[in-house]
């Protein structure tokens, strides 16, 4: 086999290997993608958010208890109250529905469609009740029979919304499955159309066929019949059922604030059952204010958390662009140096090769001096290889040993960047920083890359541990006058004895979908900066990686 053919086959094999590795990376990313919370609806609730929710629940309970003794006090009839309040409520609910549909367009989950449809029903029925309410836009209302149609729209309103929450609660943990041949926007459009048809059909029944339905009001539109109290009991139990299901299946921020929304709706029924069934009383006005507060809470949370996610994305993009710019500048410098240094030996090789070819093609071939020409080609090729080696050493020293970084600041920044992953995986973090440590001789971006790899490995190692037992500890100290130590400790199952000696080898991994390059690259980066990355402990209680970094040369000179 000729050398050129052999090199072609070797190149094909290398290309096939690279393709296989690329496919493995893509498969790994696709496998992990569904687990990453891309939307607010999948964000787990933090301890701080749960504390805020408990505080809001206490405020709602105190407000309801304070109003209850005065619920029966009759106030003046304000016909504009219902149109103004419930128009605002309808707008809020429809905006919330739009945000939930937007969440679905990012990560299709049928549970979000159900919840968005529930908010569409809530906002639509809230506004339709204002059209049917006596004295709102007309003495007997614009639609319906006057006294009973608004009451039946109210029943539809508070029946469909908890029903949608129940559907959401039972389906929210289902896997995300995109329907082939249909885009997310088409699915949203079909859902909106079906919801509008249902709303229109139910509204038509309760506004044009009220004679077929039981009556909530007879002579006086301010006082309900006994049926009204019974229906309010049923609506309260229906709302409590949805609240109980969410309580047992509580996972995310969305679940938490949906529970508070249902809790805010409860006084609406309790006032009618216990305090008063009379319109235009203190309890009647207050109950509807509770409903407005409940609707506004989830919209506020969605907007705030969306802005938080946006700020995290902006920070990530800024860091990514900064790193990319630094790498491009380094690459430009390296390629410029290579082009400048290699131009002379490559030109000499080309000239000698051309001379040799001319001598061989002459008739007869001129072999005199051929050995000298070939020796020159060999010498120039060695010279080019030496230049490449020297440029590599130069760039290694420039890129790895000229920059300085603060180890504790780099660790804090890395923990902030990974706070979302730590929160998602229920990992508790403790830090033990000595403070006032000297800067280390390490490129800040590369130090951050090493710490990102170590902490991500720690998170992966704790996946098999119980959620309450996942602990990450980061400690800094001054090893001696010339070394700073960072310890990364996890509470995972540890690394087996036979794997500990190979843990830093390239392409060795204990993960089923790993590439085996993270620790190898990290170890190389640390070594290039004059430091050392070691595994100092690994057992059933977890693993501890030690990152030893040299103090910056300027500080060492000052000390000496």
Properties at a glance:
560 residues; alpha+beta
Q: What strand line-up does the widest sheet have?
A: 1-2-3-5-4
Number of strands: 5
Tally of alpha and pi helices: 16
Instruction: Tell me the strand percentage band.
Output: 5-15%
Describe the structure.
By secondary structure, this protein is an alpha+beta fold. It has 16 helices and five strands. The protein has a five-stranded mixed beta sheet. A hairpin with a 2-residue loop joins strand 4 and strand 5. Helix 3 (81-106) runs antiparallel to helix 4 (110-132). The longest helix is centred in the middle third of the chain and has 80 residues, at 282-361.
Task: Give a brief description.
This protein is of the alpha+beta class. It has helices spanning 3-32, 47-67, 81-106, 110-132, 148-171, 184-208, 226-248, 253-275, 282-361, 370-401, 407-417, 419-424, 444-461, 497-500, 518-528, 553-559; strands spanning 428-432, 471-480, 483-490, 532-539, 542-550. It has a 5-stranded mixed β-sheet.
